[in-house]
Amino acid sequence: MKLCRSHYFDLEDILASHETMPATFTEEVKGLGFLDPGAVTDNITPKTKLELPFWILQVLLQLPNKPVTVELPKAFNATHRDIFSADACIVDFNKLCKFFYTFGKILARAKLKESPEIKKMLVETFKQRFRYVFDLSQNVETEKLASDKMDRMERELYNESRTAQVRLNQWMSVGIGTIQAASMIVNHRKRKLTVFEL
Amino acid sequence: MDPAEIEFLAEKQLISIIPKFNLNHTIHLISGDIGPFRSGIPVRVPIWLAINLKQRQKCNIVVPEWMNVETLEERKENEKQSEFFTKMPNEHYMEVSRMLFETAGDEIQKIDEIRTVLKDIWDLRMSKLKASINKFIKSDTGIAQLDHLTQLEINSVRPLLPDSLNIISSLEKDQDSDGEDNSQSQNRASSSFAQ
Question: pLDDT, tens digit, for every residue of B58-93?
């Protein structure tokens, strides 16, 4: 299961670190003018406000003179943290933040001043929403849901457990005549043949 | 795990049959010796063999003792009363009964009633299991003890439960297990930055 492992080429992780955050520059940064569409010079002037992806901000934040200050993105600000603690199940992650958990994990590790709070919130939110994902996966058989509020990680969890549930239901109603070979083994043979033909 | 694989495991259980043929020598198998078969004398064989012989009309299957309406009704009542899971008569009760219903339906008395009671027991246990999983995830404890669950029941919450626990523990951790998560995304950032 790859849900919670991140590595260098992990697409989820890369996409998640593309989530933008509002940032304000406090000092002039040379050569970064291209980031600001309204900039006239090659440099970024102080007090410029920009929505920048997290991966670039992470580097800027680690510079010794700290040329930027960041605000938390909408999904993680104080208002939304309150909403999550009230009732996490009503939040639509599909609209709000598609990579809520992965991005949240990155933020929690980024050593911002809100990091500990975000970390606590992530765990609580997941626990609260577990019931929602669990019920759906046990009782719905279609992959596409009419309205779903799940973020990517929850969706993957939903899909995995839904397929297991469908298989169990199938076994209950009609049974299974012969055990099927795992798809990996079937594909493995195919690959071998192509190698052989070459 | 696929339910079919669990059914396969359940087929290794022994069951009594009354053969309709004679075979004087024993059959030596890795899982144990079977036979000899004397017509009319009960003998213990694995379920897979019993089913095969039954399909070829070579034997009658002796229905397991627990598979009758009274015993199962009693189990069902116990299950309803108890807050926890009660011990089932057989650790593969669903699979065994399924297989026997399919092949030896003619030898089981009141088969439709048994089927209903078994389904009731299954539903009771599943709702209990779901409720306790919900409780377990919401609580902060790291361990839960669930006795007397059968393999098929355990499998019904895979992969959901282990994956959810994985996610929770990864959210709670400061670093990924390889400990390089931060430095890696930092590397990625700086290399993109350089271009």
Answer: 999 999 999 999 999 999 999 999 989 999 999 999
The encoded tokens of residue B115 equal 């089927």
Q: Indicate yes or no: CB of A157 within 8 angstroms of CB of B189.
A: no
Nearest by Cα to B182 from A115, A1, A31: A115
Query: Does residue A174 or residue B41 have the better pLDDT?
Result: B41
Q: Is any Cβ of chain A less than 8 angstroms from the Cβ of B167?
A: yes
Q: What is the pTM of this model?
A: 0.79
Beta partners for B188?
A: none
Chain A residues closer than 8 Å to B160 by CB: 134, 137, 157, 160-161, 164
* Three-state DSSP class for residue B85: coil
Provide the CB-side half-sphere exposure for B79 (13 A, CA).
26
Q: What angle do CA B96, B100, B106 make, to 5 degrees?
A: 160
**Contact call for residues A24 and B154 (beta carbons, < 8 A):** no
Total number of residues shown for chain A:
198
CA angle A139, B149, A181 (to 5 degrees): 65
Amino acid A23 reads A
Closest CA to A150 of A83, A69, A74, A93: A93
